[in-house]
Amino acid sequence: MNSENKQWIEVGTTDQIDMEDLIRFDHEGKTYAIYHIEDGFYATDGICTHEAVHLEEGIVMDDEIECPMHQGIFNIKTGKAMGPPVCIDLKTYQVKVEENKIYIEI
Amino acid sequence: MENNINYNIIILGGGQVAAHAATTIRQEDESSSLAIITNENYLPYERPPLSKSFLLNKVKESDFLFYNEDHYKKLNIDILKNEEVINIDFEKKLLESKNKKITYTKLLIATGCKNRTLDLENVNSDDVYYLRDINESIQIKNKLDLAKNILIIGGGFIGLEIASSANQLGKNVDVIELADSLMGRIVPKEIATIVKNKHQKNGVNVHLNTEIISITKIDDGYEINLSDNSVVKCDMIIVGIGAMPSVDIFKDSPLKIDNGILTDQNNKTSIENVFAAGDVANFFHPLYEENIRLESWKHAQNHGVAAGKNITGIKTEYKEIPWMWSDQYDLNLQLTGRCDQYDSFIKRGKDENEGIIYFFIKNNKIVGACGLGIGGKIGKDIRLAGMLSERKVEIEEDFLSDPSSKLNKLLKK
Question: Which residues of chain B have a CB within 8 Å of the CB of A59?
């Protein structure tokens, strides 16, 4: 998809995501994970790159998300796979907050 | 290669510990000569796929190496493959294989476990399969291509994961287990029963409280009489009845061994400059204030990392909370902490769809937990239970038993 086709999609409101937590957002057959951490709001793909599990059930620690199935860890800001068992990075998405609404660019 | 070699640091065993310990050593120490000695013909590889995705042909060998050859070359880590060490002299700091004498300054023992074996009367030992390494997984995979009826002896994690895989490959599978419940004593019966029902719903015959009465060789396999009065025909037998530390070569040495190699919280054994990590180590756990031995993926990784640091002189106390998983069909089972030493338990969730967790409680604190759910359903709460046990947080039954209450709130108290 080239950048002209990208659009900002509203995924929820800031009060829906606790600090150090995430919510799942489904859009056109894809799942995204929207995080609230100390530095703000971030978004990645919502499915672990290891065994196709929803990261929604995972645990946020500082700026990392840990997959609930096999404790694979990704950096929330960069999507980087931080070590075994995960080796494929998560895709990340731009996030903006207007008023109290959260948008991601997809 | 010469027959007499010397390394500053040798890691004996080429599994998960070796991969992580060697890499960690290199992060701290670029100059010491370093080698991994393995009796296998492979670079260190992941073992979880051996009973699951590898048997199901979803991944190939090269997909689950911890690191490829370049990684070890770049870090100047020698890997001596197919090298069976047959003798060790701790005084001379010498390892001997058939053709080599290898001396070391520091040694990390990471020989892992070996399978418990079974003598089966009237059975050709070539027809009996075990699973620990990649060669055995390949043998099982090849035989599964031809076999139709599989008998699995032992209803533990390995046996059940193979049963799940064989079932998904369309095989008829019987699992026999001596005990009255699958997966040993520590998994709560309610959870073990859900797993058993899942297997049975998928067509696996699970025989609890059952042993083999007699085996008769027939044309294309074996006919086996079981103590539950059933007769099972099979053309392949797989045994998964547990493992024990791989310590045979240390038998006549001064190395202190008691259910594995005894170490302190810094991977140190009873012999100076000799360390141990992973399945083979019975290590002192500072949180539990006693020695424990673990056989799990996460432990092998992190104990290896700790050993790497300790060997290079960065004193690192290992006090990870035990954690392991088993995947069968779409079910994910997890255990954390201590699941055998509790006064009472608190249950959360009603079934695998919601996720069901048993929290094990001692002195009003979580000491361990066992959960079962579809996909990643229970992972977060199991992880949090482990963290709560580490921090010795007091809990309230009403809060813990309510699936809607968020456990991470307890951490923030």
Answer: 379-380, 383-384, 408
The DSSP line for B247-277 is: -GGGTTSS--BSSSEEE-TTSB-SSTTEEE-
CA distance A16 to A101: 10
Is the predicted ipTM greater than 0.85, yes or no? no
What's at B56, amino acid-wise?
L
Structure tokens at B127: 């027809």
Whether the Cβ atoms of residue B23 and residue B301 lie closer than 8 Å to each other: no
| Alpha helix stretches (DSSP H) within B266-323 | 297-311
Q: Is B130 helix (H, G, I), strand (E, B) or coil?
A: coil
User: Which of B328, B369, B374, B327 shows the shortest CA–CA distance to B352?
Assistant: B374
Subunit contact B325:A57, Cβ cutoff 8 A: no
Q: What pLDDT, in 10s, does the model give residues B17-45?
A: 999 999 999 999 999 999 999 999 999 99
Exposed, middle or buried, B178 (CB in 10 Å: 0-12/13-18/19+)?
middle
**Is A59 within 8 Å of B375 when comparing Cβ atoms?**
no
**Is the backbone of residue B325 left (phi > 0), alpha (psi -120 to 50) or beta?**
beta
pLDDT digits (tens, 9 = 90+) for A67-99: 888 888 999 999 999 876 788 899 999 999 999
- Who among A54, A70, A84 is closest to B325 (CB)? A70
Instruction: From chain B, pick out residues whose CB is under 8 angstroms from the CB of A31.
Output: none
B411 contacts in chain A (CB < 8 Å): none
- Token pair 């193979």 is found at B162
Task: Tell me how far apart the alpha carbons of residues B79 and B34 are, in angstroms, rounded to a whole number.
Answer: 9
CB of B342 closer than 8 Å to CB of B330: no
Distance from CA of B143 to the nearest CA of A (A): 26
Residues found in chain B: 413
Encoded tokens for A106: 């997809």
For the sheet containing B221-226, what is the strand order? Answer: B212-218, B221-226, B231-234
